[in-house]
Amino acid sequence: CSGFPDLVPALAVTCAASGVKAILKGLNHLKVKESDRMAAIISELKRSGFGASEPAPGTLSVPVTVPVTSPMRIRTYGDHRIAMAFAMLGMRTQGVEIEEPEVVTKSYPGFWEDLEMSGAVVKKMVNG
């Protein structure tokens, strides 16, 4: 995956949500992006009930697992790619909440509107 680092979060989440076992390699560069994307992907997949690990440096393993069915709150780590990748879980699983949804404005200001136009239910949360 070294040739397309920005797609790795979406690829990993798509594999997990689709029940596709994946071993993604060439990911050493993910630790030096807007966040440590390797750690973020693994942490949020695990918190969402999917398995994920780094069995060797620069390698991400996504086994076939069954996700948690209760609502999921996804941390973005201030990273637009993590927010957008995990938002796609909402297309397969009800109740996905993305912390810091505004981080997508860095690369795709119209992301939430376009996601909604694709058929996803996007709810804006009001704090307080």
Brief characterization of the structure:
The chain is of the alpha+beta class.
Describe this structure in words.
This protein has 128 residues and is an alpha+beta fold. Helix content is 29%, strand content 13%. It contains four helices and five strands; from the N terminus they run αβαβββαβα. The protein has helices spanning 8-18, 37-47, 80-87, 111-117, and strands at 22-24, 53-56, 59-62, 72-74, 96-98. The strands form two sheets. A three-stranded antiparallel β-sheet has the order 1-3-2, covered by helices on one side. Strand 4 (72-74), helix 3 (80-87) and strand 5 form a beta-alpha-beta unit. The longest helix has 11 residues, at 8-18. The chain is globular and about 40 Å long. The N and C termini lie far apart (41 Å). The relative contact order is 0.16.
